[in-house]
Design goal:
single chain; alpha/beta; Rossmann fold; 2 domains; eight-stranded mixed β-sheet; 39% helix; 15% strand
């Protein structure tokens, strides 16, 4: 898509948008992808989002790559250590110190991408890229709007609020959890556009957590669920439990799979291991002895299908998994939460009767035992889960971003930028590696399942 036609017939150039993320888990990348898909669907040809990871992507500082690489091992092996780091940095003074030291290393790759693309808006989808977004604007794109999209559901770290963004978009639960004023009766996912007196220089708006396009259709009816199960190779009438631990495959999936298979002979299990290859190898060996009752996958691109066809999803209280599960109307059994940002997520789900907290194996087994014989209870939890879902959140966020951006100018082929290394339009190079990835699609009616290219690596 090189441009589109305006009312007068003149071609217009898509306005560049710079999306800043980091691959600590997969939720931040997925949120950026979701908003990119919504922009393409709602404003075909108007915007050209570009993805940049200034913390761990190509061109980032070695120290930052090392630090962000600790995220996965820390949440799997020492969540208490992650909690200590989270709470230790959860203040304006701590974030100021980080911004002047470690996080300052993220400024250069973000500024380089902004200089190459000249974006009309810079959107941060990660708590630690907000300051880099502001710096990139100051150094390379002085006219750009800076937007922060908060991906936490119920608890907002100080890092999200520290950067001087023009607009901060957050789930209403995260905003109200910090006692900011809100429009009376505004549902989660509504657009509010309030200016909050505690932050007179910021403009706050509420929107649900964005999910990618495969989740926009909402839950399935029972007959549709049966058809989907057949297509996935699982039993239509078996009680099906889905185990997942986000992109890192954390949360004790193996122990729970073993316990479920030992306790029940009429319950099937699907384990989604994400990028945790060690876990997948271990569960593959278990699946070979399970008589077909355990199906094991790594990272999957059809997570919406697995969520829609299962009876229960068992997971830690990650915001991305909860947002996706509620859009599919599936009941949640939450086994754990990371100290800090995920603590409020458990109350968010249980308070709405969309799931239960099952912190130990015995509690998990007891809850599955109760629900497998009580379809009415499962159906009630399905309905409660669906009420929490906000499949239109990405569209709300896309609309807010579009409102900040002026209309695109007429196309001028003399200003089309080509990469000096490849001659291809729409890529920034650092040596032989792509630093920022184009998200432009050819036709909004034929959006590819994965529109973010990242050197063969995908995150969930």
């Amino acid at each position: 898509m090189s441009g589109t036609e305006d009312a007068g017939g003149a071609a217009t150039t898509p306005a560049p948008l710079l999306f800043l993320i980091a691959d600590t888990g997969g939720g931040h990348r997925n949120a950026a992808q979701a908003v990119g898909q919504a922009l393409d669907r709602m404003y075909p040809g108007r915007f050209a989002p570009v993805l940049c990871d200034p913390l761990s992507g190509p061109g980032s500082a070695r120290l930052l790559r090392w630090v962000t690489g600790l995220y996965g091992p820390a949440i799997r092996l020492a969540p208490w250590l992650w909690g200590a780091a989270y709470h230790g940095c959860n203040s304006r003074s701590a974030m100021g110190l980080l911004g002047r030291t470690l996080l300052q290393l993220a400024d250069r790759p973000a500024a380089d991408a902004a200089r190459a693309y000249r974006p009309v808006a810079i959107v941060s989808f990660h708590p630690l890229t907000g300051m880099a977004a502001v710096s990139a604007k100051d150094q390379s794109a002085p006219g750009a709007a800076v937007v922060t999209v908060v991906t936490d559901l119920a608890t907002m770290h100080a890092a999200w609020r520290y950067a001087d963004a023009d607009l901060i978009i957050a789930p209403l639960g995260a905003i109200s959890g910090h006692h900011y004023p809100q429009r009376p009766g505004a549902p989660l996912g509504a657009v509010s556009g309030h200016r909050y007196p505690e932050h007179p220089g910021d403009r706050w708006a509420s929107a649900g957590s964005p999910v990618t396009r495969e989740f926009w259709a909402g839950p399935l009816q029972p007959d549709e669920r049966a058809i989907l199960r057949r297509s996935l190779g699982v039993g239509e009438n078996r009680f099906l439990v889905l185990l997942t631990g986000g992109g890192e495959g954390s949360g004790g999936i193996a122990r729970r799979a073993v316990a479920i298979l030992r306790r029940f002979d009429d319950v099937d299990v699907v384990a989604v291991c994400g990028h945790n290859l060690r876990l997948k190898r271990r569960l593959d060996r278990l699946a070979a002895r399970s008589g077909g009752r355990l199906m094991v996958t790594g990272f999957v691109r059809n997570m919406a299908d697995w969520l829609r066809c299962c009876d229960l999803v068992v997971s830690k209280a990650g915001p991305g998994t909860i947002a996706e599960a509620t859009c599919c109307g599936v009941p949640l059994l939450l086994t754990s939460h990371l100290p800090g940002q995920e603590k409020g997520n458990t109350e968010f789900v249980t308070g709405a009767d969309a799931g239960h907290h099952v912190p130990g194996i015995r509690r998990l087994i007891a809850e599955i035992d109760r629900l497998r014989d009580d379809r009415a209870a499962v159906d009630a939890m399905r309905a409660a889960s669906a009420r929490l879902g906000r499949p239109a959140a990405a569209a709300h966020i896309a609309e807010l971003i579009a409102d900040l951006v002026p209309a695109a100018p007429a196309a001028d082929s003399s200003h089309t930028r080509h990469d000096s290394h490849t001659g291809h339009r729409g890529e920034v190079r650092d040596g032989d590696q792509t630093q920022a990835d184009s998200m432009i699609t050819e036709d909004p009616r034929r959006i590819r399942p994965q529109i973010l290219r990242d050197h063969g690596r995908a995150s969930r």
